[in-house]
Amino acid sequence: RKKKVPCRSGVELQKLVDKAKRKANEGKVASYIPALQLENPEDLSCAILFPNNDCISAGDIEKKFTLQSISKIISLAYALIDLGEEHVFHKVGMEPTGDPFNSIIKLETESQAKPLNPMINAGALAITSLIKGKDANEKFTNLLQFVRKLAGDESIGFNREVAISEFNTSHLNRSLCFFMKNSGVIIGDVEEIMEVYTKQCAIEMNCLTLARIGYIFAFDGKDPETNEQLIPKSVARICKTFMVTCGMYNASGEFAIKIGIPAKSGVSGGIMGSVPGRFGIGIFGPALNEIGNSHTGLTLLEYLAEKYELSMF
Ligand code: GLN
């Protein structure tokens, strides 16, 4: 099943993309995952998917990128559907943090080392550890099938080079896992969790497909083409809430004030936006700010927020 949503070039959108691009030199591509260093900081693309398959785009929308932390919202949805709220929130909390996404400090200070929320690395690793399957391969395939369903595209896969590059350099994420294993939050083999997690972060798509997934969350879990309920409404609501409170890491408060929509970023430079009841947004701009959010992507969203009154508050 590969559906193609036609997307027309947005003239206004392209102007805003070109303007935001001028800020590319203020950001830097991620380098702690060596394979991500190869990206071009000047790239900036955006797609916005409206109801009735109306779609506008700007920039190179064929360009694929890896989801990185954006995958955390999808694995959370998957775990909530598969295991239910009680099980999931027994493992991870619901509170935002002012610490960086990969911080380990709270695992020692919070009782029982339960990660604060599923959007920081510790919480996302705990969620990934819950995915069912006989081995890493089956677990990852189960998650990938879910992503393909949301994407409406059976050809969605992962970037092996990026996955291996992260797997080989994930000393901090391994440490988070061992910490949580020590306290019983994680059960199971750390290497296996790392394999599933790094492949999950390396799932690849373009900004049009990302806009489609953003749309599904914006429209209470419904498929933009068939209206089929792909995610239960209650799960879509929980995910959107985490996107507001924790989606932009420790800059989520500032983002809520300046832009005011549920969104999730990744260190590849991707941002998925879900404007409730209005549209889904997919952005790729690999020039990052110090926090690890796309600098050009955020700049573009600020322009869009102003022009189209995006804020839901
Ligand atoms: N794979 C990345 C990591 O675990 C995802 C983090 C991110 O996008 N912020 O470090």
Describe the structure.
The chain is of the alpha+beta class and 313 residues long. It has 13 helices and 8 strands. The strands form 2 sheets. Strands 1-3-2-8-7-6 form a 6-stranded mixed beta sheet. Strands 4-5 form a two-stranded antiparallel ribbon. A hairpin with a 4-residue loop joins strand 6 and strand 7. Helix 8 crosses helix 9. It is globular. 51% of the residues are buried. It binds glutamine. The site of glutamine has 11 residues, from loops.
Helix content: 40-55%
Major beta-sheet overview: 6 strands, mixed
Can you list the strand order of the major beta sheet?
A: 1-3-2-8-7-6
Structural class determined from secondary elements: alpha+beta
- Cα-atom Rg, whole angstroms? 18 Å
How much of the sequence lies in strands comes to 5-15%
Low-confidence stretches: none
Q: How confident is the prediction overall: mean pLDDT?
A: 95
Q: How many helices?
A: 13
Per the principal axes of the C-alpha atoms, what is the gross shape? globular
Strand segment count: 8
Q: Bound compounds, please? A: glutamine
CATH domain topology of the largest domain: Beta-lactamase
* N-to-C SSE string, H for helix and E for strand: EHEEEHHHHHHHHEHHHEEEH
CATH architecture of the largest domain: 3-Layer(aba) Sandwich
Q: Provide the number of structural domains.
A: 2
CATH class of the largest domain: Alpha Beta
Distance between the termini: 38 Å
Oligomer: single chain
GO molecular function: glutaminase activity
Catalytic activity: L-glutamine + H2O = L-glutamate + NH4(+)
Organism: Sutcliffiella cohnii
Protein name: Glutaminase
